[in-house]
Amino acid sequence: MKSKIISSVYHVNYHTLLSLFIKNHKLQQNCYKYYTAMPRSSTHVLSMQRTRQKHKEKSLKYLGNANVSLQILGSGAYGAPKCVYLTAGHTSYIFNCGEGTQRLAHEHKYRLTKLEHIFVTSTSWNNLGGMPGMLLTIQDAGVPKINVHAPKGTIEIFDAIKKFVMLHALKIHEAKCDESEPYTDSVMSVSYVPILKSSAQEKETIDVREEVINNINYYNYTTNSNGKRIFNNTVEKERKTQKVEEKSDSTRISSAMSYICRLYPRAGTLSLEKCVEKGVKPGPLLGQLKAGKDITLPDGTVVLSTDVCSPTTPGPIFLIVECPSEDYLESFINQPAFARHHTTMSNENDTPFCIVHFTPQKVMDDPRYIDWMIKFDRNTHHIVVNEENGCMGTEAIHRQQHKLHMLHSEIFPLLNEKSFQKKTQPNDLFSIHRSRTNHIVHLQPELKFDTNNEVLLHPEEYIKEVFEIEGFSEMLKELQTNINIQTEKLSIRKEYPKIIMLGTGSSVPSKVRNTSGILLRVDKNHSMLLDCGEGTFGQIAKIYGKYKMANIIKTIKAVYISHPHADHHIGLIGFLKGREKITQDSLYLFAPAYIAMWLRFYHKRFEPILHQITLIPNNEFFMDIHNPAEHKYKNMYKTLNVQAVKTTYVKHCPHSFGISVTLHNGKKIVYSGDTMPCENLVKLGQDCDLLIHEATMEDDLLKEAEMKLHSTTSQAIQAGEQMRSKFTLLTHFSQRYPVIPPLPNDDENSSKLKNVGIAYDNMHINLSQLPLLPLMYPTLKLMFIKHFTEIEERAAKRNRTALNL
User: Fold this and answer.
1) What CATH number does domain 495-804 carry, 3.40.50.150, 3.30.2130.10, 3.30.559.10, 3.60.15.10?
2) What ranges do the domains of the chain cover?
3) Cα–Cα distance for residue pair 122/391, rounded to 1 Å
4) What order of strands is seen across the sheet that includes strand 317-321?
5) For the segment 101-156, what is each residue's pLDDT rounded down to a tens digit?
6) Does residue 363 sit in helix, strand or coil?
7) Which of 326, 332, 321, 356 is nearest to 196 (CA)?
8) How many CB atoms lie within 10 A of CB 265?
9) What is the three-state SS of 769-782?
10) Which has more confidence, 671 or 422?
11) Number of neighbours of residue 595 by Cβ within 10 angstroms
12) Average pLDDT of span 682-702
């Protein structure tokens, strides 16, 4: 079945936007800024670059003594990223960068400031989905240039990312990747091993223009900020421009790349005792001997470096491989470059110490692949990074959820912890390792596979941490009493609608707050996603586990994207790919026009993702125009099992929307997306049952909130009051507030706060439970007293600075 990206009334002039998207850099800067709301200043980035360069120059002096190791960052488990990190003193490398890589790197303190090279094995979102966030992070950390080693054509996705991630201070260089010319630097040499599809599958072409573009109906009008229709006489001109642009090659990339890496020999260790015996005095002569140079003493005695240093250690070899599917298998197993390292062909120095397999398990189970593995030395370690591993990689969110679980077991249920069980496969050989985050392969100065730092859970420690806080036990008992009293007063609870918060942070993910994502469960069989930040699919996996989540994914009938900023939509491709493996049911996508361009580009050049999707632009539901009773919406509303969906423009970047969803029982749920205080949103949300509103900044950062087009906590609360919302749930907190954001002073605003709660990732709550949230805030402040105190101290420091000015 062909993809459907259609709209009965397309208010936005698609061709105009597409032309501007490609050609008008100024619009890109203003509309699609990048992963965060505002870029770091150029002064800050340049300062970070200078600092980084100084550290690098200093570390180069000790290059010969640098320890080199491969570290598993993302194990590739279902919903977890694929990523292996190589550290070598002054520089670092990563192999693949799936969604969530940046978040794991932050939690486990991987030094991204040293990153200089990215190696990609295949052009799958599983390997590329973490790039937008990763690139922005390393740019802000002072990395001036990143080298991309990948199959030909991969660089196109980096060019596309620049349309919505402002990489103004980071140069992206495409490595040559010539099979006959290895890459070399001061650490290692890397040989490129291209893997091709079989001849029958080598060319995969699609007519994207027919499949995607021509199915969109165009109208000679657009809408202004008030929702009024305006005639646009440029449509035909832009359509002609679009036809020219669509004539480009539509062949999908159909090659993969493996890498054979060889570290340089390591110089022997200098023996000071032997130097003394030879009469060598302390000074520069010792350095020359250590560097492998022979010297002549003042009395004419020649001292050989080999006389005072231990023997040079040959540089170990490791392979990074991926055979993406059976279509590549014949090319993979017959690659001559691999054969040189098989037992029958190689000498001892050509034997790989380890092989990292990014290959899917289905391919690894193929007898041909198993035979290929057996050809290597029996002492070679085979390290698997794929979907059948069992480690999601993060401990921090489990630590926090165990603590929150003490407050209310239903609102804060424990996450699925089966992912931490160690797994093996029936066909696993004795030398196969199922990788887990923080597994380390030491390469120099010694060869060793190390599992001592692997991620595990320690629930008893998490609970102990909280009860060691003075006064917490008493406060928890008081809270539980108050919750019981309040629960008895509540009306009979219904399980649905239920809100599951998948991401409550802004801009970039932190250890415990992912970027924006909300699962609105209308009933047992119908759900909607409200925004889809990076790692949204993985968040669902962490909550429900691999097998239970299939039923949840099947209930999701629509995805709504509030605006074009990447922290609200970059998880969409990963979600679509994961969903396709679970169900072939159609899916509605409510989104700005830009999202269609991004998905269309990816679908055209990388992987098919648009099957079974119907796109309806957000302004189709504009509150002053949309009539849910119209016949053209009948099937959509039946599929969603809701009464009405309405939107309005809000005050953020262009094409930013707020949304209301009205259920058949009349309950109305409103989500602000990102916005400053907005009259349109207040109008949309009148008398709603729940307002989910962004509260990015604390109140004394009003000017910064205005500059970044966000709301403060008090502004979000005020929006709820103005629209007479029965409850306001605050979300989208700045990463300044990783575990607890500050609310307005309790004493002065007690009446305002009685219907206000703060959201946490992995929170499950139905409408009747909302009044319980305000009861929890004092206990939360004590539970996270260290963080709350830091927030107060920063605020006090800002106030003192302001007074001094």
Assistant:
1) 3.60.15.10
2) 42-201+252-265+313-450, 210-245, 272-308, 495-804
3) 22
4) 183-184, 188-196, 255-263, 317-321, 354-357, 381-384, 432-434
5) 999 999 999 988 899 999 999 999 999 999 999 999 899 888 999 999 999 999 99
6) helix
7) 332
8) 15
9) HHHHHHHHHHHHHH
10) 671
11) 24
12) 97
* Non-local CB neighbours of 337 within 8 Å, separated by 6+ positions: 179, 191, 193, 260
- Residues whose CB is less than 8 angstroms from the CB of residue 756 and which lie 6 or more positions away in sequence, other chains included: 717, 720, 727, 728, 729, 730, 743, 773, 774
Which candidate, 563, 756, 528, 533, places its Cα nearest to that of 650? 563
Is 556:517 a contact under the CB 8 Å cutoff? Answer: no
> Tokens at residue 586, please?
């159609």
The residue among 344 and 151 whose pLDDT is bigger is: 151
42-201+252-265+313-450: CATH class: alpha beta
For the stretch 463-483, pLDDT in tens is 999 999 999 999 999 999 999
How much is the pLDDT for 21? 35
Average pLDDT, the chain: 86
Residue 45 is which amino acid? V
Task: Please list, in sequence order, all residues whose beta carbon lies within 8 angstroms of the beta carbon of residue 49, skipping any fewer than 6 positions away.
Answer: 142, 143, 144, 169
Q: How far is CA 647 from CA 117, 307, 659, 681, 731, in A?
A: 43, 79, 4, 9, 19
DSSP 250: -
Which has more pLDDT, 76 or 34? 76
Residue 656, burial from CB neighbour count under 10 angstroms (0-12, 13-18, 19+): buried
Are the beta carbons of 15 and 241 closer than 8 angstroms? yes
Q: Cβ distance 729 to 690 under 8 Å?
A: yes
Give residue 239's identity as a one-letter amino acid code. Answer: R
Q: Do domains 42-201+252-265+313-450 and 495-804 have the same CATH topology?
A: yes
β-partners of residue 229 are 223
* Across 608-632, average pLDDT: 93
| 3-state secondary structure at position 294 | coil
Cβ neighbours for 773, distance < 8 A, ≥ 6 positions apart: 411, 729, 756, 757, 758, 765
Identify the residue whose tokens are 């194990």.
75
**DSSP 8-state code for residue 324:** -
Contact present, 260 and 193 (Cβ < 8 Å) = yes
Question: Could you tell me the two tokens for 799?
Answer: 């106030």
Model confidence at 246, in pLDDT bands (50, 70, 90)? very low
Q: What is the mean pLDDT of residues 648-662?
A: 96
Residue 65 has a pLDDT of: 64
